[in-house]
Amino acid sequence: MKNWYALPVISWINADRSFEGRCFQEAADLYLKGFSRNKRHPAATVISLKLAYCQCKLGQHREAIKTFRRSLELNNKSRETYIRLARLELWLCQAEHAYKTLKQAVSIIGPDAESAALLLIAALDSNAPQRDISEAYVIVRRFVGVGSETPLVSLAVARYDFANGLKNKAKSAIMALCEKKNAPLEAFITMGEILLGEGNISAAKLYLREALALNPQHPKTQTLLAESYLTESPGRSPEYALQLASNACRSSFWENLHSMQVLAEAYYQCGKRTDAVLVANKVRSVGLEKLRREKLSTQP
User: Fold this and answer.
1) How far apart (Å, rounded) are the C-alpha atoms in residues 247 and 270?
2) In whole angstroms, what is the distance from residue 126 CA to residue 124 CA?
3) Do 186 and 155 contact (CB within 8 A), yes or no?
4) Residues 232-256: tens digit of each pLDDT
5) Are 209 and 189 in contact (CB under 8 A)?
6) TPR repeats at which positions (predicted)?
7) Angle, to 10 degrees, between the axis of helix 24-35 and the axis of helix 10-20?
């Protein structure tokens, strides 16, 4: 147990007991209670990570994001906080936010293999300007062939290669990654997305089902798999696609345009035209709101 050289916070001690017992709501309440008077306690960063974990387990992802950001306001040199926040933003299909988070981390505390790889992946996912993607690639290259290259670094480089026209090389590298025991979830999602884009639906489903088995609640996996079941091919099932796309929209709090577009198509193919129109209108309103927020964020 780490000695923080500070007085213990009783509510945090009780929260840890609840945390270990997987009573996440009780733990979250007690962690928050302790924060009311101990925001600058030496253990505050560690407690913030535990609180955010509880909030994620409870489906309170927006609250978890706020917890991470408040923690970074008090301690902007916690690499683990940046990485967990960025991973959550990527989970919620908020790649542009993840890119900004990781860019800040690299700027303030420098990159490690994980943050560098995630930075490049977020840049690619958010369709960042080519200059930003190239800068992220240069950072990732520092960790290629140095010691034990991580699977995430290999995946990020392969994705960059694919985006820059080296498609066969990239596909071979990603397929090889998927064969390894420690293959990252993102490798299966990426391979499934590539094959889906090429029209190889049956192969795409194999990779996406593997990704779903690794994490059944991942919004991007659910969305891509739903899309595959809406395509004219053997095994087409709009009903199953509707189930997957609905789950994806809930998991991403109805903020991911791609998930909602797939859901609207699923409703349409299931003959539920009214629901399809309602979701299509939701896509439009969310898209306009995102444009408004982006415009405000760029104003001086």
Assistant:
1) 16
2) 6
3) yes
4) 888 899 999 999 999 999 988 888 8
5) no
6) 185-218
7) 160
Structure tokens at 101: 């988070």
Q: Which two tokens stand for residue 48?
A: 């913030």
pTM attached to this predicted model: 0.86
Confidence bin at 1 (pLDDT 50/70/90): very low
HEC readout, the chain: CCCCCCCCCHHHHHHHHHHHCCCHHHHHHHHHHHHCCCCCCCCHHHHHHHHHHHHHHCCCHHHHHHHHHHHHHHCCCCHHHHHHHHHHHHHCCCHHHHHHHHHHHHHHHCCCHHHHHHHHHHHHHCCCCHHHHHHHHHHHHCCCCCCCCCHHHHHHHHHHHHHCCCHHHHHHHHHHHHCCCCCCHHHHHHHHHHHHHCCCHHHHHHHHHHHHHHCCCCHHHHHHHHHHHHCCCCCCCHHHHHHHHHHHHHHCCCCCHHHHHHHHHHHHHCCCHHHHHHHHHHHHHHHHHHHHHHHHHHCC
> CA 28, CA 5: separation in Å to the nearest integer?
24
- The more confidently predicted of residues 35 and 270 is 270
C-alpha–C-alpha distance, residues 180 and 173, integer Å: 11
Give which of 98, 124, 91 is closest to 219, Cα–Cα: 91
Inter-residue contact 53 to 61 (CB < 8 Å): no
Q: What is the pLDDT of residue 148?
A: 65
